[in-house]
Amino acid sequence: MARKPRIEKNGFYHIVNLGVARSNVYCDDKDFSKFLEILEDASLEYDFKVYSFCLMNNHYHLLMEISKENLSVIMQKVNSRYSIYFNNKYKRVGPLWQGRFKNYFVYNKKYLYSLIKYIERNPIKANITNKIGEYRWAMSSKIFEFSMLNYELIKNIAFTKELNEDDIQKLEELQKAKYTKVNSRVKRVRQKNLQDYFSDKNISKSKRNELIWLAVKNGYKQSEVAEFLKLSRTVISKVVNFSE
User: Fold this and answer.
1) Which of 171-186 are b and which e, b meaning 16 or more Cβ less than 10 Å from the residue's Cβ?
2) CB 141 within 8 A of CB 33
């Protein structure tokens, strides 16, 4: 199935990428440093800023602001260059990343500030540190001096106030949202109910699988689709993976 092209617009994006099969993509301090160096080189070439980041062993989070509609070019170069470095260093072959990177357009300031807290608290969630700012490979450690880093937002956030469950739920809803570009403006697309996807009970299996893939790509969890269709999660997972 053909991939839907990304919609790109100048502004803030939350970027996430995961190691293939959830394997580690950073094995020592030199790996973490090399990724940041590659990101810095890309920023000098493509003119973007980073307002928050967190590099975990098997994935990364970035909050970037792009000034040109070139997000795909930026991240393809960063991920490719780091993959070449990692594969050469560890004498491995094959893809390093679990598919394409995920990107979420940041719609408003409330989303932006909640997102920074969400990114920076990853080490707490993983029981690596007890408070934001203690983890070396997050921007809140404030030990890096790359030109791509803009600490303006980090400095103005009260990290002592934790995200509550309502904040996290709203953030997840915003990240699930889809958007479209109309006359150079990005607008959110109202998410359809699962009933709208699968209203026709007599569709073919291939058409059903196509709709399953579409529903997941539009933000529904595989478990939600499985429960609605009364299918096993394994079946849904196989459909989605086959359609990628």
Assistant:
1) beebbebbeeeeeeee
2) no
User: pLDDT under 70 in the chain at which residues?
Assistant: 1-8, 170, 173-191, 219, 243-244
Q: CA 61 to CA 88: how far, in whole Å? A: 24
The encoded tokens of residue 69 equal 């509609």
How far apart are the C-alpha atoms of 199 and 135, rounded to whole Å?
48
C-alpha torsion sign, points 17, 20, 24, 27: negative
> Residue 217 is which amino acid?
K
CA distance 115 to 138: 14
Backbone angles phi, psi at 114, to 5 degrees: -65, -35
Nearest CA to 168 among 107, 111, 105, 218?
Answer: 111
How far from 148 is each of 36, 76, 133, CA to CA, in Å?
A: 10, 18, 19
Q: What is the pLDDT of residues 3-43, one digit of tens each?
A: 555 566 788 999 999 999 999 999 999 999 999 999 999 99
Q: Side chain identity at 63, as an amino acid letter?
A: L
Which tokens is 137 given? 């490979």
Q: Which two tokens stand for residue 81?
A: 């260059």
Cβ contact 188:218 at 8 Å? no
Q: Residues near 125 by Cβ (< 8 Å), separated by ≥ 6?
A: none
The structure's pTM equals 0.72
Rounded distance, CA 44 to CA 37, Å?
Answer: 11
Query: CA 81, CA 64: separation in Å to the nearest integer?
Result: 18
Question: CA 239, CA 16: separation in Å to the nearest integer?
Answer: 23
